[in-house]
Design brief:
Blueprint: H1 3-18, H2 25-36, H3 41-54, H4 57-67, H5 76-90
């Protein structure tokens, strides 16, 4: 796993979160980063979050399973706060 890419994922999803979780160029960049690290549980978690933002709960559920996580049902912002702490600790 590239810690630089994990830090980049956090920074990119931070921008998405700060903007209110739109599907914008930062969402696209985060999604691409997650795809390039498929099979790494932290990037798979990020991938699940991306699909949650997209509103595709079925695809999000798939990526939660790949990440070894239960699908989140709380506020997206709260999940992101937890995920970013875990990701930064692993970077």
């Amino acid at each position: 796993m590239s810690s630089d890419d994990l830090e980049r994922l956090v920074a990119t999803l931070d921008k998405v979160a700060e903007a209110g979780f739109p599907m914008d160029k930062n969402w696209e960049a985060a999604h691409e980063l997650c795809q390039s690290h498929e099979g790494n549980s932290l990037f798979d978690w990020g991938h699940a979050i991306c699909h949650r933002i997209e509103g595709d709960q079925g695809n999000a559920a798939y990526w939660y399973r790949r990440a070894g996580k239960s699908p989140a049902d709380g506020a997206l912002a709260e999940e992101w706060k937890v995920a970013r702490v875990v990701m930064l600790a692993a970077a």
